[in-house]
Predict the 3D structure of the following.
Amino acid sequence: MNRAEASGVRVVIASGRSIQSIRKVLSGTWKVDAAVATNGADVWASANEPIHRDELNDAVKRRVVEFAVAKNLHLSCYSTDGTYALHESEYLTEYRELVQGLPVEIRTPSQILEMPIFKLVFILDATTLPGLRAEIEPELVSLGADLTESAPRYLEILPQNVHKGSGLTHLCEHLGIAQTEVAAIGDYRNDIEMLKWAGVSGAVANALPEIKSLADYTVSSNEEGGVGEFIAQFVLQR
């Protein structure tokens, strides 16, 4: 990544994490500049320049919160100033470990409904996720949302047509970068639109089979330097 930036390539982190979490996790390792955060709903051209934000509409927020309360589900709520939850749970403990100490405060349903929300995330057992998605997805789509998965236990609700691909579109238009000049690499279902959109796409070896099948190239796993391999072969040598 350092070599790429030194050669004039703009390196962008595209993640389901909030911008606060991206900066926290990469602090001391990588200075986050441009970023596509929250799966495309929060786009930053630089550390101090948010350029595009998409929020869930009130009907979607209300239905998801009602559903979470009725079924006693963990719900992470991504707002402009941080992430919130409806109640303490084992899943919230897991989530706090994932975000490495960033505060995740409890808020009431009415407080959540008053906030601007980029996305809502159910964290639940992987075996129950498909059934829950099938139960709620048609209604949420009709209300103006799209659903995706960022991990086996993470079901994400975003504004319709908002994803990493749309986030990169906004960023590249702002920076004057052509779609054909973009290379992207991923591993899970929330990367699908981004990989389809990019001029060159890659998947790490431990990506889902469906991700590897749509990517132009497959490289080593993310634990074996696959991202660096992709940059070296398909970015720096182009």
The chain has two domains: 2-54+163-234, 58-159. Residues 2-54+163-234 form a domain with the Rossmann fold fold (CATH 3.40.50.1000). Residues 129-143 form the longest helix (15 residues). The mean pLDDT is 94.
